[in-house]
Amino acid sequence: MKLASLLSALALGIASFAVQAADPIVIKFSHVVAPDTPKGRAADHFKKLAEERTKGRVKVEVFPNSQLYKDREEMEALQLGAVQMLAPSLAKFGPLGVRSFELFDLPYIFPNKESLYRVMDGDIGKKLFTLLEAKGITGLAFWDNGFKQMSANKPLHTLEDFKGLKMRIQSSKVLEAQMKALGANPQVMAFSEVYSALQQGVVDGTENPMSNLYTQKMHEVQKHLTLSDHGYLGYAVIVNKGFWDGLPADVRDILNKAMADTTVFERKIAQEENDEALAKVKASGYTAIYTLPYKDRVVWQQAMLPVHKEFEEKIGRDFIQAAYNIAAQVEKEKAAQPAAPASKDKPGPAKAKPAAKPEKK
Ligand code: SIN
After folding, report:
1. CB 216 within 8 A of CB 143
2. Does the beta carbon of 33 lie inside 6 Å of ligand 1?
3. Domain range list for the chain
4. How far apart are CA 158 and CA 332, in angstroms?
5. Which residue's CA is minimally distant from atom 7 of ligand 1?
6. Nearest atom within ligand 1 for CA of residue 235
7. Which fold does the domain 13-335 belong to in CATH?
8. Mean pLDDT over all residues of the chain?
9. pLDDT at residue 352, as a whole number
């Protein structure tokens, strides 16, 4: 009898150990955009790859649309370990004290996606991630969204049109300076609050890639949109460093590979999502869409370029110069290729030349 109860206690113990051992590692992945955006779809893709490839040892819980936290709160939650993974816009790292990320907010700094990817995937991207370590954060990948467009309830064609407009921006000092350079009045606001702020007239306009504008229904409360490609919005996928370092090495390896594959997927769908969103906004009939002609694009660019100089110290002159060099190199390589047929209505964001080269000191 004694032996029987000992054996059954042992069996129970083994069973409960087995349940414990089978408890998956949970990654809470919080983000602020809709599931049908480049970031939203990529978060779901990562969940799928991570869960399949770890055979259930890892469970990824994705919380879209600021369900758990708004912009600023989610950074704090990550540092405290309340969530393990985020993909904030690159414009949201300033308040963390890592101002160099604002490089990506400089107006017209990237003439094309090739230059952008080389910056993200090269030394600059690596150095930026190193800067996060001291904040208890590890950077895993850079994800794409797209170039930003301007919207308001009045046409935005000339600089004069921006005068006095209250424009919602993300929490970036560069974006603040950019809007001021245009004559507008910048208002920092969490992404989740933008739709109602536009609807109620708390702000007059905003800037975002088409996928964000469309999925948040901002076009329903913005009568005018200017395709200006004046700046860029992308993401850094980040994790709580303590959590990440504490993972079993084999699990971390699998997750790193899943993240690399997700990044390839994400960059492939980003442009498609933005093109589709533009088509849907056009079809909706809510918003008049104006493509900024090249001659006016140059005028906008001239107005905003002093912002590069203004932020040299905060961002780091080396980072800015390296981004200019990459853009110039990409242009050189493009120029050496056989000419593609010219597109009249959509010139690249900054028509090549990194026009804002800082003066030599
Ligand atoms: C995001 O794409 O994560 C949000 C961007 C914004 O706050 O405008």
Report:
1. no
2. yes
3. 13-335
4. 31
5. 191
6. 3
7. D-Maltodextrin-Binding Protein; domain 2 (3.40.190)
8. 91
9. 37
